UniProtKB/TrEMBL annotation:
Residues at the catalytic site: 73
Gene behind this protein: nadK
Residues where NAD(+) binds: 73-74, 78, 147-148, 158, 177, 188-193
Function: Involved in the regulation of the intracellular balance of NAD and NADP, and is a key enzyme in the biosynthesis of NADP. Catalyzes specifically the phosphorylation on 2'-hydroxyl of the adenosine moiety of NAD to yield NADP.
EC number: 2.7.1.23
GO BP term, pick one: NADP+ biosynthetic process
Name recorded for this polypeptide: NAD kinase
Species of origin: Candidatus Phosphoribacter hodrii
Length: 306
């Protein structure tokens, strides 16, 4: 059987065609075919990306042994939509800035291709969330998230008024910019920017982080993986809201809308090349000042270089 890797490139990076062609050519030279969904191939001009087969979006990852993403966290989250629900793990090669979800950097491209060919990687399952949006007795939408579910106000000039429940019990009611419900994987993304804690990815938990809540008690909460969380937009509130999952899939929320969130039975499979502890990644990606202190014998932090 032919070995296949699905390539998911950043669609707008100027040099992405050259990078995708380089990866496809290196893999083909070692007997591994590459495929790409039609929308990506169209953006990259498929005739110029080397030995890559164009496939339909639906089921693109099914016959592949790996989904290889060439881009930053946004592109990786798009690749997650293609790999979730299959046995195909996802590997991110960072072409962006932080790239917290990426496993390797662009400088390691040649070595990474060799390790893909040798199947020299492990697979780690990450928690995802199931999300149901309802209004009254009817279900409006069902979706999912790898990083976070963000319930946000739709208009800048109005607060979003919500009631939050945990395991069927009311926790609090807030006027706020929004509420974030995140996985440990997503604890370093939007939830982190909103003041939530960093949670190691091997911890099984769900985070609830109020975003700019106008209240005396509006602290982040960490609950167990079997807890069920709900956010209800107050029925007589003037402002409407919008639900975003991983910043990619959205649902408009009218007053009275209810969002139920729980752990999904479908994990996200991530390919890992490194066995370094999560602490190393945390420091590398976020704490540039620590690197500056360590590298300066005079004891003054040095500015990071591009």
């Amino acid at each position: 059987m032919t070995r296949r890797v699905l390539l998911v490139p950043h669609p707008r990076r100027p040099d992405i065609g050259d990078i995708a062609r380089d990866v496809a050519t290196r893999l083909a030279a070692q007997g591994v075919a590459t495929t790409m969904i039609a929308t990506d191939a169209a953006a990259l001009h498929a005739t110029d990306i080397g030995p890559t087969t164009v496939v339909p979006d639906a089921g693109a990852a099914n016959d592949c042994e790996l989904v290889c993403v060439l881009g930053g966290d946004g592109t990786i989250l798009r690749g997650a939509e293609l790999s979730r629900g299959t046995d195909t793990p996802l590997l991110g090669i960072n072409l962006g800035k932080v790239g917290f979800l990426a496993e390797v950097e662009m400088a390691d491209l040649a070595t990474t291709v060799d390790r893909i060919v040798a199947r020299d990687y492990t697979v780690e399952d990450r928690m995802t969330l199931d999300v149901t949006v309802s209004h009254g007795a009817g279900v409006d939408s069902r979706t999912w998230a790898l990083n976070e579910v963000s319930i946000e106000k739709a208009a800048r000039e109005r607060m979003l008024e919500v009631t939050v429940e945990i395991d069927g019990r009311p926790l609090s009611t807030w006027g706020c910019d929004g509420v974030i419900i995140a996985t440990p994987t997503g604890s370093t993304a939007y939830a982190f920017s909103a003041g939530g804690p960093v949670v190691w990815p091997d911890v099984e938990a769900i985070l609830l982080v109020p975003n700019s809540a106008h209240a005396l008690f509006a602290r982040p909460v960490v609950v167990g993986p079997r807890s069920r969380l709900a956010v209800e937009v107050i029925r007589d509130a003037e402002g409407q809201g919008v639900l975003w999952c991983d910043g990619r899939r959205h649902v408009d929320l009218a007053p009275g809308a209810r969002i139920d969130v729980c752990r999904s039975a479908v994990p996200m499979r991530l390919a890992r090349l490194s066995h370094a502890p999560f602490t190393d990644r945390l420091v590398e990606k976020f704490d540039l000042s620590v690197a500056g202190w360590r590298g300066n014998g005079a004891g003054r932090p040095q500015p990071p270089t591009d």
